[in-house]
Specification:
Blueprint lengths: L12 H22 L7 H17 L12 H8 L1 H16 L9 H22 L5 H29 L1 H4 L11 H21 L1 E2 L2 E2 L1 H29 L6
Antiparallel strand pairs: 1-2
Helix pairs in contact: 1-4, 1-5, 2-3, 2-4, 3-4, 3-5, 4-5, 5-6, 6-9
Subcellular location: Cell membrane
Protein name: Cobalamin biosynthesis protein CbiM
InterPro entries: CbiM/NikMN (IPR002751)
Length: about 240
């Protein structure tokens, strides 16, 4: 559900370059971690979860302005590190069909990778005292909520700029205080205008966004719970 669809040339260079660098570091850590595991059984699962995410992310849901990711389910099935590799592959492929620019692949991988890793960790923590379905539902809901907060923060900070985020520490002072204040105010006004333009079910603004997010999170939670319930019946070993 949390996926930046921003085309190339919109995000500041420092943002998407940093995203690629951090993604490269995480991939190297993932490769190191995976060397300790028997990948002969897991690599086929990697292909399956990549296919699942590609399909769900590519299918629009009509009037609902979001799509399903199944990132938490991916983390549950293949673990955090192989899941991180999977989301990188998926985001890279999606960028070739216009599902977000090539420059945001790094940032999208970090965001969806966070969902995979956090979802996997929470599921394994919750299932110690809860049923697998309940653990999957809680893990998915909490993970998506945190991911959405992160993605909204990133979009907001990218509009304001680094020099206004650091609270004047290391500031180059090329702009005076009035210029800074005006820039921030214009950014906030622009964001408010964008929020007010959102409309869903004859509701606009923050109310529409809240409804969309509740439906989106609820739908992904429901699908993940049903998938875990099904797998628990036919292949419970996959959840271990």
């Amino acid at each position: 559900m949390s996926h930046i669809h921003i085309p190339d040339g919109v995000l500041p260079i420092s943002w998407w370059v940093s995203g690629y660098l951090l993604t490269a570091i995480m991939l190297m850590i993932a490769v190191y971690k995976l060397k300790k595991e028997d990948l002969r059984k897991k690599v086929p699962y990697l292909g399956v979860v990549c296919a699942l995410m590609l399909i769900t992310m590519s299918i629009p849901l009509g009037a609902l302005p979001f799509h399903i990711n199944l990132t938490v389910l991916t983390g549950i099935l293949v673990g955090p590190w192989l899941g991180f590799v999977a989301v990188f592959i998926v985001n890279f492929l999606l960028s070739f069909i216009g599902h977000g620019g090539i420059t945001v692949v790094g940032i999208n991988t970090l965001i969806l990778g966070l969902e995979v890793m956090l979802g996997s960790f929470l599921f394994r923590a919750f299932r110690k005292k809860l049923k697998d379905q309940t653990a999957a539902g809680l893990a998915t809901g909490l993970t998506l909520l945190l991911s959405i907060i992160l993605i909204l923060t990133l979009v907001g900070l990218s509009q304001i700029g680094w020099e206004y985020v650091l609270l004047h520490e290391h500031h180059d002072h090329t702009l005076d205080v009035e210029d800074e204040h005006e820039h921030v105010q214009n950014t906030i006004t622009g964001l408010r205008s964008l929020i007010n333009e959102v409309s869903f079910l004859n509701i606009s603004g923050i109310g529409a966004i809240v409804i969309i997010l509740v439906i989106g999170i609820g739908l992904e939670v429901l699908i993940t719970v049903l998938m875990v319930k099904f797998l628990n019946r036919v292949r419970p070993d996959l959840l271990k």
